[in-house]
Design a protein that fits this description.
Length: about 160
């Protein structure tokens, strides 16, 4: 962790209208990758609109690397089926964290990122000052699949003794 700038907590809130990969439903889980790191949520059985509410944490060494999300359907007797993927850039979020903001009213919007062909956002994503912390809420449209979105929230965690931002 000596090369880490800090930690990125990714709160995987929920999936919306995910694809059917079993007979009538799916058993979805989310895998988050950045560089060589890989973390995943728990499996939610038979649900196309799962609520995970799982916190996943990545150590950030290179903030220019994209964060890659993949959703899978858990299968017992065969390989897990892919249910779409997405990725996002943490650059704008890191820029706001570097501002070292203090004392703003909770709910203050600091920056807005619009959906475009260069990102997987399905709607505007706001970086907000909430309860003394910088957070970013985002809805990602899954690619390489017929339907589905994932709702996430990013939060920065400073590590004492790290090289910091």
């Amino acid at each position: 962790m000596e090369n880490s700038l800090g930690l990125l907590r990714i709160h995987v809130q929920r999936g919306v209208n995910l694809a059917v990969r079993d007979v009538l439903s799916s058993d979805p889980y989310v895998v988050v990758r950045m560089g060589k790191q890989k973390v995943k949520t728990r499996v939610i059985k038979k649900n196309l609109n799962p609520v995970w509410n799982d916190d996943l944490t990545l150590s950030i060494v290179d903030p220019t690397l994209p964060v890659k999300i993949a959703v899978y359907d858990r299968d017992i007797f065969s390989l897990d089926d892919k249910m779409g993927d997405a990725e996002f850039d943490i650059g704008p979020f890191i820029e706001v964290v570097k501002m070292r903001l203090e004392g703003l009213p909770s709910g203050t919007i600091i920056k807005k990122i619009q959906p475009s062909r260069q990102n997987c956002l399905s709607e505007e994503s706001c970086i907000i000052w909430r309860n003394g912390k910088v957070v970013q809420d985002m809805f990602l449209r899954l690619r390489n699949v017929e339907c589905g979105e994932i709702e996430l929230q990013l939060q920065w965690i400073d590590i004492p003794g790290s090289r910091g931002l």
